[in-house]
Design goal:
The protein has one domain (13-144). Helices cover 46% and strands 5% of the residues. It has helices spanning 19-29, 53-68, 79-85, 104-117, 121-130, 135-144, and strands at 39-42, 94-97. α4 (104-117) runs antiparallel to α6 (135-144). The longest helix has 16 residues, at 53-68.
Length: 149
């Protein structure tokens, strides 16, 4: 790739237990004079319309899974401070709305993601062992794809 070719920004630092450590490594390997763009989801911005308790239930399970694995889906409002602490000098930090699914095709795509997530054996094992749901609730979450289509 040519040095001047822009790359689209995309990070998932919220999955990491130490986003600052990852940013420090990024700073170390970045060539002098280069620019990096970091933005990440802020899960506190989520809105569902129409409101649906099953969607919120699935969302809560997702939050608990990220947090159980050491991540923080709510860290990104602190992104600029973390970037400065990692050694970046000219910074902008952006916490962005988690995602948007305003068209039927998008909601169906997300429903397929949820079906896969709640059918994945390690995810099932974690949810059951932590007592976040029983098998019947999990089957409901995996196959109903609440409000998604």
């Amino acid at each position: 790739m040519a040095p001047s070719t822009p790359r689209s920004p995309h990070t998932l630092l919220f999955h990491l237990s130490e986003p600052l450590r990852a940013l420090r490594v990024l700073r170390q390997v970045l060539e002098p004079g280069r620019v990096v763009c970091v933005s990440d989801d802020d899960w506190s911005t989520l809105v569902f319309s129409p409101a649906d308790p099953d969607i919120w239930r699935a969302w809560d399970l997702g939050i608990w899974l990220v947090e159980h694995n050491g991540g923080s889906p709510f860290y990104s409002p602190n992104l600029r401070g973390l970037m400065r602490e990692a050694g970046f000098t000219r910074t902008e930090g952006h916490a962005v709305a988690a995602d948007h699914y305003g068209r039927l095709a998008e909601t169906r795509k997300h429903a397929r993601f949820l079906e896969g997530l709640f059918s994945h054996p390690p995810v099932i094992a974690t949810i059951l062992s932590e007592g976040w749901a029983d098998e019947a609730e999990l089957a409901h979450d995996a196959h109903r794809s609440p409000g998604m289509g």
